[in-house]
Amino acid sequence: MSGKPITDVTHNMIDQTQLIEALKSNFGFDTFKGNQEAIIKSLLEGNDTFVLMPTGGGKSLCYQLPALLMEGTAIVISPLIALMKNQVDAMRNYSDTDGIAHFLNSSLNKAAIERVKADITSGLTKLLYVAPESLTKEENIDFLKTAKISFYAVDEAHCISEWGHDFRPEYRRIRPIINEIMQRPVIALTATATPKVQHDIQKNLGMSDARVFKSSFNRENLFYEIRPKKSTSDRDIIKYIKNNPGKSGIIYCLSRKRVEELAELLKLNNIKVLPYHAGMDTATRTANQDAFLKEEVDVIVATIAFGMGIDKPDVRFVIHYDMPKSLEGYYQETGRAGRDGGEGTCITFYSAKDLRKMEKFMQGKPVSEQEIGKQLLIETAAYAESSVCRRKTLLYYFGEQFDVDNCGNCDNCLNPKKQVEAKDELCAVIETIIALKEKFKSEHIIDVMLGKNTPDVTSYHHDELDVFGCAEKSDDKLLNAIIRQATIAGYLDRDVENFGIMHVTPKGKKFLQKPVSFKIVEDSDFNEEDDETPIKAAASGAVDPELFSILKDLRKKVARRHDLPPYVIFQDPSLEAMATTYPITLEELQNITGVGAGKARRYGEEFIKVIKAHVEENEIERPEDLRVRSAPNKSRLKISIIQAIDHRIALDELANSKGLEFDELLKEVEAIVYSGTKINIGYFLDEIMEKDSQEEIYDYFKEAESDDLQTAINELGSDFTEEEIRLVRIKFLSDLGN
């Protein structure tokens, strides 16, 4: 690096040519992006500087270049070890010496720490990355008092605020420690900060007089979409990735368990993927992160621990399997897509039930923390359920106006809903807020308008107000939409510092005096039932009737050849599933309900040959991800039942040992044989039934057109019990079908 230190910058004019030359020689860029040059000049002039810049805007350069140009070492306070390593590696790549940048954290041994200190003392190190925990250690404070420090950079500064999406209490101690070490300029940087969080950062870092640089939060290249979370969401994700082969993507999940499960599922479906979460050992986590950066894998499934400061410009999609806890978290995580200005798709699966779970997890935390967390979740739900332009809502949340009605790059704008007139309802909302003396949140306002006698409403005697029940024919969904959209339009204001208390703005009061048209779009209806919708094995409406008929004919031929009833080969639901999903390999066929590996091997070749020919002749686009490959059933119960039968354990004893009713055990055994596994229960039948009785039932099933139990009971009469018929049917299916 050839950057020449600028001495006594507060007394020298900063020459623009000199800055451009330093930028070119150190980083290879010809021009600055956005506010970078003004920010760097501010810091070089000795000012405290606050930088609000979205992901991909080039925040790191704002402190890296000044550090190279100023005498001494810049102290960069950063929250994650992985982030520090990434930044240090990047700086060393620009330099001909590794000593130019170091990190100081718990991962270093004593010898490495001494080497870091020696490089700082000699003046070689221009950037020292430290975690706030390392900064507070007495030995580090004592050492830094002896060093020449150019300035302090507080990266991911939103961590200082309880209202930020990643609050870290140790960030609150940064200012007192800076005061103890030595006073130097401070630059605070964040990619996400609402006006409230910005205020918190400046207040806690003692930089209320800082020069503030805000870049627009609008990432025009990002496409935002919210989908309802359903039982088919895994399948949707697999289909999306397979339709975008070779593209880099991140999938965020809230729990480590879900990360592991989803990564395994994607791997089974031939997707190059690795998991990443804080519960993994450091070496594995680092190796997985590096594999993603080096494009050895396409997809990383991760908790939110992944991605902070990761400089991969060509992430093409970010999928949230779970809605994040706050809009700040959502904005930062989606912001990791399309950092190069290219395509960036952001898909989120939303369920109100997930947010309710998050709220439950907050129980036991301090009340103020619970209130803040709840308010952040309310904002998140409002964003997800709203039919308003995603950009407009997001930018408003970060204190930025977006005056375009249709951004053309979000799900709501590409599929706009019809607008409805809400002038009268907005007047009622404003009148209610004023009647409540502007001291309550939207939930309470809506309860009063709907005439609900909740404990809060009655305790404040708000059921006695004229506005009580003024919108009783409406519903909370519509009123919520009106309040949110009236807030974005500037008629109302939400007091964030007081947990969402609603106020009427001067514009709102003017509206009440002289109402004008106010059209809104109703919120999207995220049906709670969708969360639990079971997958139907084969919806009859999706069955290919021609193929189903061909498969039935083939089944008859195969059955005749083996001298078996057709249902023993494959049952109708299995044929329906084949005529819906078009399996063309044995591996795909064995995933069909009622087939299994055994039947696929025994009868499958002819069926997949016929299906493949039908698909090619009719140029059918197979919904190959309709039934995704899933991890094999490792049910301990089924395995132990098979092992016990192999050891000739009496079935009634087996049921008792497993704590099952005999009927429940039979259901398990039936499922085992229907999936194609061969078992022998002859030893048990010989104990409880005469050979003649067994043969009579066995011969019935040989001739029957169906294995239907009720039909068998009717045909065989009262000579046999239901259990006896079921047991012989199990033996028959296992002997001849598997």
Description:
The chain has 34 helices and 17 strands. It is α/β, with parallel strands linked by helices and 738 residues long. The chain folds into 5 domains: 9-214, P-loop containing nucleotide triphosphate hydrolases (Rossmann fold, 3-Layer(aba) Sandwich); 222-413, P-loop containing nucleotide triphosphate hydrolases (Rossmann fold, 3-Layer(aba) Sandwich); 423-517, Winged helix-like DNA-binding domain superfamily/Winged helix DNA-binding domain (Arc Repressor Mutant, subunit A, Orthogonal Bundle), CATH 1.10.10; 540-617, HRDC domain (DNA polymerase, domain 1); 636-737, ATP-dependent DNA helicase RecQ (Arc Repressor Mutant, subunit A). The strands form 4 sheets. A 7-stranded parallel beta sheet has the order 3-4-2-5-6-1-7, sandwiched between helices. Strands 8-13-12-9-11-10 form a 6-stranded parallel beta sheet, sandwiched between helices. A two-stranded antiparallel sheet has the order 14-17. Mean pLDDT is 84; it is low at 1-12 and 528-541. Helix 23 crosses helix 25 (572-581). Strand 10, helix 12 and strand 11 (299-302) form a beta-alpha-beta unit.
